[in-house]
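Narrative of activities, Objective 1.

The group set out to show that a structural description can be obtained from nothing but a protein's sequence at a throughput compatible with the screening campaign. Below is one input-output pair from the validation batch, recorded exactly as produced.
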Amino acid sequence: MLKEFKEFILRGNMVDMAIGIIIGAAFGAVVTSLVNDVIMPPIGYVFGGLDFSNLFITLGPGEYTTLAEAQEAGAATINIGLFINSIITLLIVGLVVFFLIKGINEMHERFGEEAAAEEPATKKCPECLSEIPIEARRCAFCTSPQEAAAEA
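Output recorded for this entry:
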């Protein structure tokens, strides 16, 4: 059982998946920073200095000026600003993934059509199933005529 687990873990696709998860986590951190540190401050400035991270509703008694203050006091809050930040992060990640997949699909179409357009250089002999040049009139292995096989 340990040997099977070792083979499973060391399989190529498992390592590729682990690398993808690690890069995805790093990419998520970069996108979160992009939203919180680059995109949201100008949006907050446009809305009169509104800080979305401090946009919250307190459930119960007490008034707090910042979300950190409310959380420190143990108040129950609905964190609307953090939710808005998460939505914007999701939209940015979705947009980046869309452009990435679109680029990959265009590469597949561009290079896939060229490969499909190439005609094969060989064919199989219908008698002995050997690979022979496409223009051969007779099989080099069994000497069967190829023109007759194409007509039949």
